[in-house]
């Protein structure tokens, strides 16, 4: 496909665009908007946990006058937790990472004019947008939004009469998720086909940047696991609306015997977690790929163990699809089956450790450029290791039983998936902002954003491990009825203060992002002096990426600080673009 020279209208350029660069911006800004909603919800329910008996004007203002004069109702608390989890996992992290960076970088880094199907790419975004709108609309339903937890276990999610949040709010939740899954599947298939079929001349699979490997394997995981969640959602809709009992059996409500038999809520758990655990890596692998690129660039060194990194991505992808049962150790699982899931879960620590080791080794003795993108990448390595260590406890069935459904679990998965993925997303935004908007973000504001975010993240989730070990259960809107938890009440206050600090510190990022779009310093073509193909395109966007012929690739993407026998840079610089032809006797890898 050659460049497009036809004149574009406002609608075709900014709304129904088929240009992958514009679609990546649409995903990012929609994800940021959803992120603001999700983070604000977490600040509201943290107020309730820290000061359960106090009245807050902000609660009454945003949640309605029926909140007992500013004191949050139990139903609303559970609804906020449910929608917060759903928005952050699916609408922020999945869209903010895969939707944004797969769209932006895949054609640019493999040397393609655009995605394999620009039309399906556009459809993927608009289905994501519609699903986001439906999820937000569910917040305003009179009976309340879905409130069965983000895992929506039956029977709460299967019986419209179970609790207020089981009614129309849950129906909208299921509708939104079904559309979201269809969007993700269309996107994933497009990414896979593009990487397989549209690589430029010389771009072998072993010359792809690690970002491409991460996005490619992430798309494969999505194609394998997302249909399973779609089937679970459809069967749940049938249980709710058409009288089937896939997930229901022997149900009593207020003394009434309901006519359900033969189903099992545990079946739903299996279907949900078959997507739910790979989803951790659908979120995390793109962040790790982004980190690989940024750490190599800003260490001015080749990434350590390129092929080992590819192997670890593939191993993580395979293992992540066969460990879902570790979420179900207390569901009455056969102890032998529990031991199998324990083994496969602990096995995933090996490729994860390979990645962490390779990051540290790449940083070791590098010429570190500590810009905001690099700091967020190093922060990701920190939280990935910290959160991963507690996974060893939760992956062991005998140990997990003691802390299951406590704040220990909340701390673990927020650090290893939530915080790590968000840090990776911020790193990617700071690094590729010049490629998206042709301008630079403010570095000083980026430093403030990083340090406040990191302090807040550890301030929130590190203490949670200890209140979890003390037995404090998650999802309770108050613990005042349990005297044994009085001693941890002050810790919850500290956690809430850090959560509010973390939420407010994101205002720095929002200001930096939107101001820099219009007023940021104009970027040069290759501001980070990086090797990969996207930095050979003009600063001004054209639909087709390169004017004239697409460049040819001659080398791998991590030729940094290449010196000769005298210690001089072979090409006169400490980096060599992938498009630079080889000199006599030079190793292409």
UniProtKB/TrEMBL annotation:
Keywords: Electron transport, Heme, Iron, Membrane, Metal-binding, Respiratory chain, Transmembrane, Transmembrane helix, Transport. It is found in: Membrane. InterPro entries: Cyt_c_oxase-like_su1_dom (IPR023616), Cyt_c_oxase-like_su1_sf (IPR036927), Cyt_C_Oxase_1 (IPR000883), Cyt_c_Oxase_su1_BS (IPR023615). One of its GO terms (molecular function) is heme binding. GO terms for cellular component: membrane. One of its GO terms (biological process) is respiratory electron transport chain. The chain crosses the membrane at residues 27-45, 77-106, 118-141, 172-198, 210-238, 271-292, 304-324, 336-361, 373-395, 407-433, 445-471, 491-515. Residues 10-537 form the Cytochrome oxidase subunit I profile domain. Its main location: membrane. It is a multi-pass membrane protein. Belongs to the heme-copper respiratory oxidase family. This is Cytochrome-c oxidase. The gene is ctaD.
């Amino acid at each position: 496909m050659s460049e497009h020279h036809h004149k574009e209208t406002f609608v075709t350029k900014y709304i129904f665009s088929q240009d992958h660069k514009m679609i990546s911006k649409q995903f990012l800004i929609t994800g940021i908007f959803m992120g603001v909603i999700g983070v604000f919800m977490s600040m509201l329910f943290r107020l309730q946990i820290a000061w359960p008996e106090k009245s807050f004007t902000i609660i009454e203002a945003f949640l309605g006058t029926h909140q007992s004069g500013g004191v949050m109702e139990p139903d609303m608390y559970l609804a906020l937790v449910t929608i917060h989890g759903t928005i952050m996992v699916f609408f922020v992290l999945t869209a903010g990472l895969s939707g944004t960076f797969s769209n932006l970088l895949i054609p640019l880094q493999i040397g393609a004019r655009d995605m394999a199907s620009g039309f399906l790419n556009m459809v993927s975004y608009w289905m994501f947008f519609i699903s986001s709108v439906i999820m937000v609309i569910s917040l305003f339903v009179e009976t309340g939004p879905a409130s069965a937890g983000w895992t929506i276990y039956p029977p709460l999610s299967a019986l419209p009469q179970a609790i207020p949040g089981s009614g129309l709010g849950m129906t909208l939740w299921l509708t939104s998720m079904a559309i979201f899954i269809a969007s993700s599947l269309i996107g994933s298939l497009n990414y896979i086909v593009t990487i397989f079929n549209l690589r430029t001349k010389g771009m072998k699979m072993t010359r792809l940047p690690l970002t491409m490997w991460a996005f490619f394997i992430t798309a494969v995981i999505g194609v394998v696991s997302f249909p399973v969640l779609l089937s679970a959602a459809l069967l749940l809709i049938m249980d709710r609306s058409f009288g089937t009992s896939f997930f229901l059996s022997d149900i009593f409500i207020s003394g009434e015997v309901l006519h359900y038999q033969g189903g099992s809520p545990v079946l739903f758990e299996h279907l949900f977690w078959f997507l739910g655990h790979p989803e951790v890596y659908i979120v995390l692998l793109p962040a790790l790929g982004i980190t690989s690129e940024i750490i190599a660039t800003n260490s001015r060194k080749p990434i350590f163990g390129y092929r080992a990194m590819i192997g670890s991505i593939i191993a993580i992808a395979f293992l992540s699809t066969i460990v879902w049962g570790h979420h179900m150790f207390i569901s009455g699982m056969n102890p032998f089956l529990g031991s199998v899931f324990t083994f496969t879960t602990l096995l995933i620590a090996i490729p994860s450790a390979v990645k962490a080791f390779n990051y540290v080794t790449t940083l070791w003795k590098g010429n570190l450029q500590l810009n905001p993108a690099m700091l967020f990448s190093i922060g990701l390595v920190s939280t990935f290791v910290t959160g991963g260590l507690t996974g060893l406890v939760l992956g062991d069935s005998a140990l997990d039983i003691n802390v299951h459904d406590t704040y220990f679990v909340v701390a673990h998965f927020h650090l290893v998936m939530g915080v790590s993925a968000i840090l990776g997303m911020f790193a990617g935004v700071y690094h590729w902002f010049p490629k998206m908007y042709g301008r630079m973000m403010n570095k000083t504001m980026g430093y403030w954003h990083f340090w406040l975010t990191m302090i807040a993240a550890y301030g929130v989730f590190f203490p949670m491990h200890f209140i979890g070990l003390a037995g404090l259960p998650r999802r309770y809107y108050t613990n005042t009825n349990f005297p044994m938890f009085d001693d941890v009440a002050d810790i919850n206050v500290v956690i809430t203060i850090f959560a509010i600090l973390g939420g407010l510190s994101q205002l720095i990022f929002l200001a930096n992002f939107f101001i820099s779009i219009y007023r940021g310093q104009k970027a040069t073509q290759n501001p980070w002096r990086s090797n990969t193909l996207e930095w050979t395109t003009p600063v001004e966007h054209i639909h087709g990426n390169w004017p004239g012929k697409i460049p040819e690739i001659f080398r791998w993407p991590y030729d940094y600080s290449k010196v000769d026998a005298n210690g001089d840079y072979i090409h006169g610089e400490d980096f060599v673009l992938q498009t630079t032809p080889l000199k006599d006797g030079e190793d292409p890898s």
